[in-house]
């Protein structure tokens, strides 16, 4: 019996589109020579990212400020693996994630200021 291998894209924590992200996956088939990541806007299924990266490592790197991604939006992603013969696997099950603006935290304390309560 022949079993077709399908990659598994790991959960993606929310991230700010202005920072680089490495999306990891597992693969149990022929040696991976490249991978193809597709990202869709979840609200209307618009394809916003479709890139293939040549790498035997089991992650796909999203560059900072990737075109098509917007903070405050939910997306779904799938990944496929290509072997040495450029045969593409079936896509992984979709994984949902959000892009959010990275929060900033400021503490406004003047020099020599005394804080009576902690």
Outline:
Helices cover 0% and strands 37% of the residues. With 118 residues, it is an all-beta fold.
Structural descriptors:
118 residues; mainly beta; four-stranded antiparallel β-sheet; three-stranded antiparallel β-sheet
Low-pLDDT segments, ≥5 res: none
**Major beta sheet summary:** 4 strands, antiparallel
CA-based gyration radius: 19 Å
User: Helix amount, in percent?
Assistant: under 10%
Per DSSP E runs of 2 or more residues, the count of β-strands stands at 7
Summing up helix and strand content along with how strands pair, one would put the structural category as mainly beta
Please tell me what the overall shape is.
elongated
Tally of alpha and pi helices: 0
Write the element-wise H/E pattern from the N-terminal end onward: EEEEEEE
Query: How is the largest sheet built, in terms of strand order?
Result: 4-3-6-7
Measured distance between first and last alpha carbons: 66 Å
Mean pLDDT: 92
Beta-strand fraction estimate: 35-45%
Explain what this protein looks like in three dimensions:
The protein has strands at 8-9, 21-26, 34-41, 46-54, 59-62, 73-82, 95-99. The protein is mainly β and 118 residues long. Strands 4-3-6-7 form a four-stranded antiparallel sheet, with no helix packed on it. The protein is elongated and about 70 Å long. The model has no long low-confidence stretch (mean pLDDT 92).
């Amino acid at each position: 019996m022949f079993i077709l291998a399908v990659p598994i894209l790991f959960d993606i924590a929310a991230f700010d589109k202005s920072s680089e992200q490495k999306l990891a996956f597992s693969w149990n088939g022929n040696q991976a020579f490249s991978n193809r990541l597709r990202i869709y806007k979840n609200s209307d299924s618009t394809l916003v990212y479709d890139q293939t990266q040549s790498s035997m490592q089991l992650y796909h790197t999203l560059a900072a400020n990737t075109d098509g991604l917007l903070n405050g939006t939910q997306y779904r992603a799938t990944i496929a693996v290509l072997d040495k013969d450029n045969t593409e696997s079936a896509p992984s099950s979709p994984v949902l994630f959000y892009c959010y603006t990275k929060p900033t935290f400021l503490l406004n304390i003047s020099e020599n200021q005394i804080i009576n309560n902690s």
